[in-house]
Amino acid sequence: RFIMPCEGFSGAPMTGYADAPAYASRLRALTQGFEVKIIVFLRRQDDFIESWYTQRIHEGRSETFAEFLQKIRTEEMSWLRLVQAYAHEFGSENIIVRRYHKAFYPEPADLLVDFCRIVGVDTHLITQSLGRVRNQGFSREAVELARACNPHLDKDQQRHLRQLLQV
Fold this sequence. Notes:
The radius of gyration is 18 Å and the shape is globular. It has eight helices and two strands; from the N terminus they run H-E-H-H-H-E-H-H-H-H. 13% of the residues are buried. It has helices at 20-30, 45-58, 65-71, 79-90, 110-119, 124-130, 140-149, 155-166, and strands at 38-42, 95-99. The chain is mostly helical.
């Protein structure tokens, strides 16, 4: 699993995946001599930005959505440039792109099953062991409540509030 950071430091603008060419190049260097397939699950940018904001609130941030949006360089949130950066390093024939949306993966295990099929792993045990577990998000009301409470809570209290709000 290779994760690219999305947020700026010290109030710097958040550039999304603007550094994708550098990450792709590093990953290519690390995997030299191996047959590599890049599997990318992409959300629509608006869904991605909303999820990114919610994740920041989960982590204890307290900025409003408007404040969050002001920090993002939306012109650098191009999935095409992201995929092209990896295609440049690994070849377009080695890039597999899937849409990440509940409409395409309605059951909790569906995305993992799709991934396993791509890489040739038997999915029988996965579907049995995962059951109906799903990553619990926040409702809009829960996001606002957490955003307002986070500055007044320590990390343990924030974690406990997050668990309550996810229920």
